[in-house]
Design a protein that fits this description.
elongated
Length: 67
């Protein structure tokens, strides 16, 4: 049963799938958790970058509740 898989930049083709190769609910949950953690880390990184680029004084940022 040939097919293709597309995930963003990842593209792969497979010729057949064994029933033993299918993802178990536990493996799928670990994959989803890893993806969510990457998204969270990306979000935190973007917020840190935005804070670094903030040109207001530290006092102004503290009054605004940012730091």
């Amino acid at each position: 049963m040939p097919g293709e898989i597309h995930i963003d930049e990842l593209h792969t083709t497979y010729d057949s799938v064994s029933a033993e190769a299918l993802l178990t609910p536990d493996v799928l949950a670990r994959i989803v958790a890893a993806i969510r953690e990457c998204e969270r880390a990306d979000h935190v990184g973007r917020e840190a970058l935005q804070a670094d680029l903030d040109t207001r004084s530290v006092v102004e940022q503290q009054r605004a509740g940012r730091r």
